[in-house]
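task queued by scheduler; priority normal; single chain, no ligands, no partner chains; default sampling; output format set to C-alpha cells
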Amino acid sequence: MKRRIGIAIAVATTAALVFSACSSSGGGGSASSSSTPVKGGNLVIARSQDIISMDKTTTFDNNSLRVMEQIMEPLFMVSADGKSLKPYLATKYTISPDQLTYTIDLRKGVKFTNGQPMTAADVKFSLDQDTASGSAGWGFINAAIDTVTAVDPSTVKIQLKYAWAPLIADLSLFSNGIIPNNYGGKTAAEFYQAPIGTGPFVWDSWTKGQSVKLTKNPNYWQKGLPYLNSVTWTVVPDANTRQLQLQGGQISIDDTPSWSSLASLKAMPNVNATTFPSTQMDYIAFNEKRAPFDDVHIRTAISYAIDRNALVKAVLFGNGTPATSLLAPGTPFAIKDTGAATYDVAKAKAEMAQSTKPNGFTTTLLIQSGDPNQASIAQIMQSELKAIGITMNIQQLDPTANKQARLASNFDMAWNLWSMDIPDPDEFTSWAVDPTGGSHSAFTGYDNPAVIALNKQAAAETDPAKRADLYAQLQKATSKDAFLAYLFYSPYVFASTTAVHGFHVTPLGNYQLETVYLTK
C-alpha cells in the first residue's frame, strides 16, 4: 500500500530544528507589516555584487539564486521557519512500500509566463536537465534518481536507484525549479538569457554590473499575487553608499549592510534593521592538492591558531557564535561537540612541530575584493598565523575571478561561506565531502573514502535516529580531518525602509517576494 502525503508535509527525516540564540535580534524577524496589502510599486534591493547567471543547474552564486527563485518555482517549498516543506507546484505525493517509487500529483491550472500550461513533461525535462549537469553543477542533488516519467499531464513518477531520504527536500531546491519542456523551443544558452517559469515575476532586463529587473506576472497561479509591479536589484559595492541610499529612499532594501552599521541603522527613523535566523557558516578551505595542505597537522595547526571569539567580536560585532561543526545550528542533525579545533596556540605549535613544515612556511589566503568582512578575517588570521611561524599573504580577486580560481584549484587557502538551501543536511555534506558532489569537496580536493561512505549511508537511511547517528559520526570525522577551518555562524542581516511590508528571509537564505508590498 502506498503512503499518502497530504497538503501539509512535515520533514519526516528531521527533528524540530533549533536555532542558536545569536541568530535573531532586532526587528522581530521580518519587515514591517500593515493589515491591508497595497498593490503596485517597484521594490529596489541594493547589494554589493551582480548576478552571474540564471542557469539554475550550474550556478552556485547566491546573488543569482535569489533572482531566479522569483521566476522558476519548485514542486515543494520550504516553510517560513525552515523546518518543513509544503506543496507548491505539486499538491501531494505517494511512496511505494519499498521506498523506491514516488508518484507526484501536479497542481492544475498553472501556466508558464509565456501562457503555456505546466505539465508533467515540463517537470520531467526540468529534473532531467538538473541531473544531467552532474558534477559540473547541482546534478549531484539528484544522484539517487534513476528515471522520471510523465505518467499523464498532471502526474509524475520518480524511480530511485536506492532509498533516498532527502528526495522531497531535494525537489524544493532551485536547481529543480520547473521550466518549459525543451526550453520552450530555444537552446539552453538562449533560454537562460531570459528564463521563463511559473513564478510571480517575469524577466525584464539585465544591465551587467548595474542592475537586474523583473516585472509582475499578471497570470500568476496564486490569485491576487504578486502585489508589486516590479523588483530591481541594483549593484552598489560600497556599504556606506547603500546606507545613504536607504536613508534617502532611493532603495527599499539594503541586502547585507555592514555589521558595524547595524546599531546605527536600528536607531534611524523610517528604517527597519533586522536579523533573521540562518544556517550560514563562514569557513576557510584548504587546498589539499597543494603541499603542505595535504598534511593534516598543517590544517589542524591553522585551525587551532584561529581565535573565533575574536572574529565574532571584530567582524560580526558580537552577532554570531564560533563554529564548531560542518553543520550549522538549525541544520537537521547538527551537533555541537565534534572535536573540532578551538583556539589554542600551544596546540597549534605542537601540530606544527609534527608537520612537514615544522619551521613554518609562506602561503596565501584568497578572498574577494571589496568585502570588508573578508578583509578583516584575513588581517586577523595573518597576525594569528605569524605566531605559529606561518607567513600569510592576502590575495584579493573580484567575485568572478575568485570563483574561477577556486574552481581551478588555483589557491592555497580560500575564504568561503555556506548556507543551506533545503531542510536536509545532504545538500551541504555531499557538496563538501564527496569529490563528485559538484565542487571537488568544497574546492578542497578532500577525499576520505570512509567519510564518503558515511555520507552516502546517511542519505539513504530513512530512520531518523539512525540518520542522526550517521551524521554525528560524519561531523566528528570531518572535524578530525580539518579539511575546513570553521570560523563562525551568523544570522542574515537586512535593512529596509518602513515602507516595506512582508519581507521575510528563511533560515535557508531564500525569500519570496510575491507577498511583499510597499506603502508610502
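post-processing summary
- The CA atoms of residues 289 and 452 lie 18 Å apart.
- The chain has a mean pLDDT of 92.
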